[in-house]
Amino acid sequence: MALLEVNGLGISFGGLRAVDDFTIRIEKGMLYGLIGPNGAGKTTVFNMLTGVYRPNNGTIKLDGENLVGKNPAQICQTGVARTFQNIRLFKKMSVLDNVKVALHNETKYSLWTSMFRLPGYFKKEKEMDQRALDILAVFGLDGQAQVMASNLPYGQQRKLEIARALATNPKLLLLDEPAAGMNPNETAELMETIKLVRDKFDVTILLIEHDMKLVAGICEYLTVLNFGTELASGTPDVVLHDPAVVTAYLGE
Ligand SMILES: Nc1ncnc2c1ncn2[C@@H]1O[C@H](COP(=O)(O)OP(=O)(O)OP(=O)(O)O)[C@@H](O)[C@H]1O
After folding, report:
1. To pair with 46 at 20 to 30 A between CA atoms, which of 30, 40, 120, 199?
2. Secondary structure (DSSP) of the chain
């Protein structure tokens, strides 16, 4: 059984069929790319996978568990985490706290314990500090744990977003244009980080990206969307040379 199985997914906004009959299977541990021209429906697919939009048609299964009809918090608990096209960090919070907020997904101490700061509270907080620091270390951000998120350079803010998503302990990580706004050096570094994340956190990754160097460099399989429907699917060397895909990108 594939980790993610999506069949016949579709959604309309008024008269616009934004996504139609979208079908995808992603095996555990895969690095999968979802690409396509602007407005093709890629982010809408992410919004359906994460419960932001409820699809009009189709099924979504993660490890065999149905996701359609669950809300975003329930889907996060099931094991799906995401980052956004535009950075959505808690800008006035420290780097460490940005990650700790996501760890609260699994904190189990009682309201009583936290209100009265009982010993269990401090023990749990210390454990969480350490877990957050361990995650940050993978991104080389542990040294900046106390820095305010908004004071990090752009490339590091993007990494912090990925670190925060990982703190929810996902099976499936969705990255929406992780290289957007990055310079070539930052993008090259990000490519290594994404590969490291997949291996170190034993996570499956589906990413949307316009940077074809990144897509060709790290994705093992691709699906191309165009006007809400699948244009092509396959390995990058085949898909990126497909004349229909080239034409869609050039807008001919
Ligand atoms: N909430 C909404 N209401 C109305 N139309 C929407 C809504 N969300 C998305 N759309 C439309 O659905 C289509 C697909 O949009 P989407 O953002 O998924 O494209 P995309 O492939 O992610 O594009 P980009 O690469 O530019 O981010 C667009 O025509 C968009 O305007």
Report:
1. 199
2. --SEEEEEEEEEETTEEEEEEEEEEE-TT-EEEEE-STTSSHHHHHHHHTTSS--SEEEEEETTEE-TT--HHHHHHHTEEE--SS----TTSBHHHHHHHHHGGG----HHHHHTT-HHHHHHHHHHHHHHHHHHHHTT-GGGTTSBGGGS-HHHHHHHHHHHHHTT--SEEEEESTTTT--HHHHHHHHHHHHHHHHHTT-EEEEE-S-HHHHHHH-SEEEEEETTEEEEEE-HHHHTT-HHHHHHHHT-
CATH classification of 1-79+170-252, choosing from 2.60.40.730, 3.40.50.300, 3.30.420.340, 1.10.3720.10? 3.40.50.300
Interval 113-144: pLDDT, tens: 556 666 666 777 788 889 999 999 999 999 99
Q: Are 37 and 226 in contact, with CB atoms under 8 Å apart?
A: yes
Pocket of ligand 1 (CB under 6 A): 13, 16, 18, 36, 38-44
Which residue's C-alpha comes closest to atom 18 of ligand 1?
41
Q: Where in the chain is the domain with CATH 3.40.50.300?
A: 1-79+170-252
pTM exceeding the 0.95 threshold for the entire prediction: no
Tens digits of residue pLDDT in 139-164: 999 999 999 999 999 889 999 999 99
